[in-house]
Design goal:
Layout (H helix, E strand, L loop, with lengths): L2 H28 L1 H26 L4 H32 L1 H21 L6 H10 L2 H17 L1 H29 L3 H35 L5 H11 L6 H17 L1 H27 L7 H15 L1 H5 L1 H13 L5 H7 L4 H14 L1
Helix pairs in contact: 2-3, 2-7, 4-10, 8-9, 8-11, 8-14, 9-10, 10-11, 12-14, 14-15
Length: about 350
Amino acid sequence: MPKHDQNTWQINQLFVMLATMFTVLTVLKLASGIFVPFLVSIAITIILSPMFNYLERKHIPKAISLLFVSMLALTGVVVLGGYISQEVADFLRNLNTIQARVESWLDHLSGFAETYGMQITHDDFEEVLNRSNLTVLIHNLATQTKNQFSNIFLIFFTVAFMLMESNYFYNKLIKIMEKKEGNITEWMKIIDKIKDYFLIKVKTSLLTAVLALGVLWFYNIHYAVLWASLVFFFNFIPVIGSIMAAIPAIVMAGIDDGAITAGWVAVGYLAINLLVGSILEPRIMGKGLGLSALTIFLSMTFWGWMFGPAGMILSVPLTMGMQFLFDQYEETKWIAFMLSDYEGEEGKEDASEREASR
């Protein structure tokens, strides 16, 4: 094929690929009401599968294992969900009073800053809170959580069937790879990588939430369980999640006991995030995710736009899956490479020097 025709064909391929991606993403966006419960079901299945597999290894019948795991999960959701619902209802009843106290606290903060020569007004503090879009995100998360509770039976049965079929998934994948002459090892690696990431994130998020709950209980902050629950969910949101989860608790501490208590709560949250997010989690996680920091941040924004808060929470596993799919085809390998954490030869040398210094 002449060079001119070859270039034209490559451009045509690019436009066909972009058109296909646009069509697929549009369909997923329009079908988010169906797709989000499916994603939630997969996430719950990943969380429950280790316990289910453990019971099976103990030669307990599948039906009994499934019933035990399901009842344990539902009991936890009902008990914790009921308690959080009470706190949310109480918070909404006192919302006007809380807003008035927030206004008063912001006035106090601006006066405190002025005594130290900092020209920060009440409006400046309010603009920072408004620009964070935290209220909108919390409202959307609550709305989506409520919607998923309305789909509880759909999610429950989907999870049950996924758990029952989990042992057969590997055999099916082997059959598919045999027919397509694919590499089963690569597929299992990415599946295990996503599964390990999600399980580790659940454990570290739970630890972060429990530690945050301890700090809030120590200072007797109102709605401590609600703020700790936000810590658990927001900890899945990369880059900004832990920061956004801290804001409501710090503000509530300020209007409860003043700026000094708010400062100590902020220090507590900072220490917890440094301990878990910067020290413990990287050690448990091991090697990197294979995604650049920019990719992680942009993926959070993109999947959040696609599927709301659930998309933000699951943005990293979704992007890892997309990167793997792009890497399977010659025409899209360059996209997978652009999403990767490749730093160049100099970056590799610097990383090697850092490893050697350890």
